[in-house]
Predict the structure of Proline--tRNA ligase.
Amino acid sequence: MPKQPVVTPRAQDFPRWYQDVIAKAELADNGPVRGTMVIRPYGWAIWERMQAAMDARIKAAGAENCYLPLFIPESYLSREAEHVEGFSPELAVVTHAGGKDLEEPVVVRPTSETVFGEFMAKWVTSHRDLPLLLNQWANVVRWEMRPRVFLRTSEFLWQEGHTAHATEADASAYARRILHEVYADFMRTELAMPVLAGRKTKRERFAGATNTMTLEAMMGDGKALQMGTSHELGQNFARAFDIGFTDVDQQRQLAWTTSWGTSTRMVGGLIMCHGDDAGLRIPPRLAATQALVTIVKSAPEVDSTAAQLVSELAAAGVRVRLDDRVDTPYGRRAVDAELKGIPVRVEVGPRDLADGQVTLVRRVPGSKEPVRVGEVAQQVVSALAADHQALYDEALQRRDAATVDAGSVDEAVDAAQTGWARLPWKLLGDEGEARIAGQGITVRCLVVPDADVEGGYRVPDTDDVAVEPELTAIVARAY
Amino acid sequence: MPKQPVVTPRAQDFPRWYQDVIAKAELADNGPVRGTMVIRPYGWAIWERMQAAMDARIKAAGAENCYLPLFIPESYLSREAEHVEGFSPELAVVTHAGGKDLEEPVVVRPTSETVFGEFMAKWVTSHRDLPLLLNQWANVVRWEMRPRVFLRTSEFLWQEGHTAHATEADASAYARRILHEVYADFMRTELAMPVLAGRKTKRERFAGATNTMTLEAMMGDGKALQMGTSHELGQNFARAFDIGFTDVDQQRQLAWTTSWGTSTRMVGGLIMCHGDDAGLRIPPRLAATQALVTIVKSAPEVDSTAAQLVSELAAAGVRVRLDDRVDTPYGRRAVDAELKGIPVRVEVGPRDLADGQVTLVRRVPGSKEPVRVGEVAQQVVSALAADHQALYDEALQRRDAATVDAGSVDEAVDAAQTGWARLPWKLLGDEGEARIAGQGITVRCLVVPDADVEGGYRVPDTDDVAVEPELTAIVARAY
Ligand SMILES: [Zn+2]
Ligand SMILES: [Zn+2]
């Protein structure tokens, strides 16, 4: 079937393509308050499956979920001056509640960091209470002047992890464990997204952190998106909130803490990484519906074969749905399934069936081939596995093809117009970084070549070229 | 082991017992803003498992999850006058955001009802779009003057379902399906709570509803708690938001809608229904940790047997954890496990083990008996099943014993001092209902005797004794 231009082509206007896909695939609408979003069932199913896959990994890493309040006394956010400086214009403040003006206004949480600080200080007294490994799934609010659905919204959903440890080494290892075993593994395995794990420069580091580690992905237009971060906070946070413990020698010590977060931004990243001019492409492992059995035209044998295929696919562990909306034209249903990026369709129609066949339509390669009825389940299972891998490989190849080894800052700036640049950190440095910022280009992360690591790079221990002379800066425009 | 008075005995001061259990079982703390709560990992695990069990049933009933924004324009809440009247003093209003005063203040959602109304009107155009079955898991805010953790908090977590149907019969059937197949089944099966399904009187009905159905449970002090409600909204909601559709004859029709909700209140209900003077008792099916294998005193054989039992129990499908905190006195760990209501403990100590035995401690019957090492898994599995049922039976017997058949309003008022009263609705009526309200006693629901229904009563179709002369009022004090 020839692809219809149901969405603006990416090459023509990428931001418009993004908006079109979100509207036509029924992912989300704008909310009635500017900057907020209504996440529709199809979009929510994506987030829900992301949450479940992440949550299982977070629990496997030993962290426990909890829930802190939406409202924070305004005074809490002036406790840590550096912090408020960063958030202040983003705060939404409740001044009126219970039918009267509040004596102390309350802030709608931009993060629960300060409340975690207060309660972690209460909950930790002895070295026996450590490590304390906490996570929260919640909505947070940061007022957004230039909102864009999923990427920058005044309210978004996220998880924030906060942990306290007895030693710096333990905190450091845990922050890395979250980065690699939870975040990177989830993004590569479930989202089929190649992410580069690196270290933020001082300029890009989270306020209060001694080290911010990041996972960066390349979008379809060559820009970067930060998919998640994991921070070592040293003893800064523990000092601000007095998170201390008595050690084995009955001496009081300050804890070492970490924090880490990912959000509904990842949904935007998924769209922009895998989508094409026909709409979304959902990685098969993530897809709530992996296979759609479509009745092209109803007939007794067609209906019974379709029902049988649904059972067989479900029995084979495939998340399958029946599309029997035969009063909607078939072409419209096909376009809708493509827009929604459903990995596989099994089209059952009277003509094919007369030959004992149905048609297997695969969203990722865009292929369409006859399959014998008895072989459908096996073919679908192998198509799902192959197409998940194909999405990953395609994204990786695109990233590699659009990443240039730059020999100078000017070359890097040129390369960042269409993709990423790699250049020695010693060629750029703090000053070079400040200069290219003026052109909307940032250092996404610092990495060190390491052939043993997926992607060929590892996260550096430092941003100091005297210690790690091979530090490489990844430079790009970013969302 | 003799029970220590670690919490205030229920008979002495039930509200104080409730607070003690919440604090000592580490379920929740008060948040920094009055009326808010910090749900600690042990409390959150309860809610998380409630959510999962409910969510599976909601999906099985065909509803899809979505997410609407936290912020609602103030103007939305004056659209439906009757509604604002009810909520107004409970609203929290953001007047300041993005570093300046907002032109139109935004309300922190007390419910997403108005936004559901707006978007359902957009999403429904044809009879093909019906039924539209939506659900949302979210936090909501209703400013609370006399807060009590889990029961009445300014912020709470809930699910709210909103559905639109082509016919009154379809809407009516769906509201009942949610009440019975989702809510009542979840509460009886997973929470081991006997709930009485009934119909609210006009006085207690949700504003805008044509029929409110409820599930009422008896707490340990004889008071009632409303565990969940399911509303038929007739065409009132559809009229207010213009939710219409073209029928098969191309005629425009108004939809028929329902809404239904349950919240973190259920956690409070669980505590007050099953808790005893030693603390919580978590129903085995709900418990995140069903069995705790406790090393009483470490020794090579003890440690290896404990590890082996953990594996065997996990293999038998039991959610099991190892307690090897041997530097904490054993008695303190036992009291903690009782407080937390962990259904079963397997105590492994050197003395028992010399005889090839361990000790099985069951929280519900309070029993403690030796078990041969090779029989642990099988014994634990059957203990969990038996004790879940025992909790249900005990709660049902308590409810039946504390429910009096009253022959007059005065008798009912007396009975409501310590439990529930049943009396013919025609003896009470609207006037009697208004009169007993002055003494803090309400009609929890109306029911009709029906021997074929669990609990011996069914939900009436009407509150009119002319139509259903056997209408019985359940009268009680309530949380
Ligand atoms: Zn106001
Ligand atoms: Zn302010």
Notes: Confidence is low (pLDDT under 50) at residues 81-86 of chain B. The radius of gyration of chain B is 25 Å. Chain B has three domains: 14-274, 291-386, 404-471. The longest helix of chain B spans residues 376-401.
